[in-house]
Write a structure and sequence with these properties.
The chain is mostly helical. It is built from twelve helices and no strands. It folds into two domains: about 160 residues, Hypothetical protein af1432 (Orthogonal Bundle), CATH 1.10.3210; about 70 residues, no CATH class.
Length: about 250
C-alpha cells in the first residue's frame, strides 16, 4: 500500500477517512467506470458524511460503521457509469449503483467482515440515497450516506445541517467540483433519454420536463406528456376504480 493516501486527512475540519484496502480498491473501481467529476463528487460526499456524523444527534448505542459509510458514498453513483452497456434498462440509477456495488463486494477478496446484514445496509444506503423520506429514517449509516451526498449539492445552504465556510472550502479545495452543475444536468437528462420509464416516478424525470432529453429542450413536451400519463393519480387512481368495477 502506498504511503500517500488518496483520501488525505483534512486537518482544519478534523476529518479522517479510513485508509483500508477495500476503500482504496473501491476508489480505483469508481475511477475506472465514471468520469473525474463524478469521482470528486462521490469523494466529497464521503467527507461531508463523516463531518456531519460528528454534528448531528443519532443513536450512539452502537459504534458507527465508518467504513460502510465511506464505501457507500464512494460507490453511490456507479449508476452514472460512462459505459452505458453496464446499466440496466429497467432500473433507477440508484438501484443500478447499489447492485453494481454489491456485485463488486461479492467479487473482491477484501470484503472481510461484510456479512449479509452489512451488505444490505450498504445496498440500502446507495439505493435510497436520493430519497430522503426513506433514507432519513433508516439506520445511521444509511442516513449519513444520504446527508453526506446531499451536503455536496447544498453546501453551506443545506437546511438543518451546520457546515461552516472553512469546512466547505477545505473539502471542495481538496476535490474540486470540475463543472459538476453542468455535468449533473447532462447525466439526469441522459438517464431520461436512455431509460425513460425509470424516471417517471422520481426526481430524475423533472429534469427532462424542464430541460428536455438533451439538456437543451429537445423532446421536453413529449416526455412531459408521457410522465404525466404515468403519474398518480391520473394513472393509479382510475385503475383502482376499474378494478372495483370488475368485482361488481
Amino acid at each position: 500500500m502506498s504511503s500517500v493516501s488518496p483520501l488525505p486527512d483534512l486537518p482544519k475540519s478534523g476529518i479522517s477517512l479510513p485508509d483500508t484496502p477495500l476503500i482504496r480498491e473501491a476508489l480505483d473501481h469508481l475511477k475506472k467506470y465514471t468520469n473525474p467529476t463524478t469521482v470528486n463528487h462521490c469523494i466529497r460526499s464521503a467527507y461531508f458524511a463523516i463531518l456531519l456524523s460528528r454534528k448531528i444527534a443519532r443513536n450512539r448505542s452502537k459504534p458507527l460503521d465508518v467504513e460502510l459509510v465511506v464505501f457507500s458514498t464512494i460507490m453511490h453513483d456507479l449508476g452514472w457509469a460512462t459505459d452505458k452497456m453496464l446499466l440496466s434498462k429497467d432500473k433507477r440509477f440508484e438501484v443500478d449503483g447499489a447492485n453494481m456495488a454489491r456485485s463488486y463486494l461479492e467479487e473482491v477478496k477484501l470484503s472481510v467482515g461484510w456479512d449479509r446484514h452489512r451488505t444490505q445496509l450498504m445496498w440500502d444506503a446507495i439505493a435510497l440515497h436520493a430519497t430522503p423520506s426513506f433514507a432519513l429514517h433508516k439506520e445511521p449509516e444509511v442516513m449519513l450516506a444520504h446527508i453526506g451526498i446531499m451536503a455536496d449539492f447544498w453546501g453551506l445552504n443545506y437546511p438543518g445541517y451546520p457546515i461552516t465556510i472553512d469546512e466547505n472550502k477545505e473539502i471542495v479545495d481538496a476535490f474540486p467540483r470540475l463543472g459538476f452543475k453542468e455535468q449533473f444536468l447532462d447525466i439526469m437528462c441522459g438517464l431520461c433519454a436512455l431509460k425513460q420509464g425509470t424516471t417517471y416516478d422520481n426526481f430524475v424525470g423533472e429534469y427532462s420536463v424542464e430541460y428536455g432529453l438533451d439538456g437543451k429542450g429537445a423532446g421536453k413536451e413529449e416526455f412531459a406528456k408521457k410522465r404525466l400519463a404515468f403519474s398518480s393519480p391520473r394513472g393509479f387512481y382510475p385503475a383502482v376504480g376499474a378494478y372495483e368495477q370488475d368485482e361488481d
